[in-house]
Amino acid sequence: MRFNRILLSATLVVVALVIQVSVLGRLQLPGAVPDLVLLTVVALALVYGHTSGALIGFAAGLVADLAPPADHAAGRYALVLCVIGYAAGLVRPDSGRFRSAWGPLLTVVAAAITSTLMYAGVGALVGDTAARHVGLTGLLLTATVYDLLLAPFTVPFIMALARRAENDPLAVEANAGQAKTADVSSGWVAGGTGLRIGSQRGGLRLITARNRANRAGRIRGVKGVKSVKSVKKL
């Protein structure tokens, strides 16, 4: 991973974790807690791809496992976010551009459902039965709704920051398109448009026709003078 990727990803993950623990976690919402760290991982994976998404997800999950007030085994959420980051990176189009906003939103919905199921499944393997007491169906529903409501305000912003820091090919193509337009415009100014060339050709033709008419008049005048002189001699 490049240094700017690491720096931006670490900053965004830390900020998301602080907001999630200090603000979202204290809202006392029913069911699950809005997972801003999950949305950050998904947004970065949609820009950087599956490999970087898996690494970012693992690091973000490990920080979330160690940050207070975590009450579960370390590495549990790291495994979940590593898989989510890898899967979200696979959804990234080859061109890097989504045709509509439904792509990222559907990815967020799938990530919210999958992360909740995986977290509960890993908890069941290690003997954590807290999800059973809360209700897995309620957790799935509330986690999906909260993340889906929070996604339009976070995912596009994070993706834009990641592309700008990465010098994404989309931005390069846009700048190249603007430069190409400027080159074409400057070429038109220097060489002239088709209409200007046509007017120049028309002007040359008109000047040539006038020169021919003047030459014809001169020839006729010379012939007239010669004819008058011949009549006088007779």
UniProtKB/TrEMBL annotation:
InterPro entries: Cell_shape_determining_MreD
Keywords: Cell membrane, Cell shape, Membrane, Transmembrane, Transmembrane helix
Pfam family, one: MreD
Family: Belongs to the MreD family.
Origin species: Streptomyces toxytricini (Actinomyces toxytricini)
Transmembrane portions of the chain: 6-24, 36-62, 74-91, 103-126, 138-162
Subcellular location: Cell membrane
Keyword Nucleotide-binding set for record: no
The encoding gene: mreD
Membrane topology field: Multi-pass membrane protein
Protein's recorded name: Rod shape-determining protein MreD
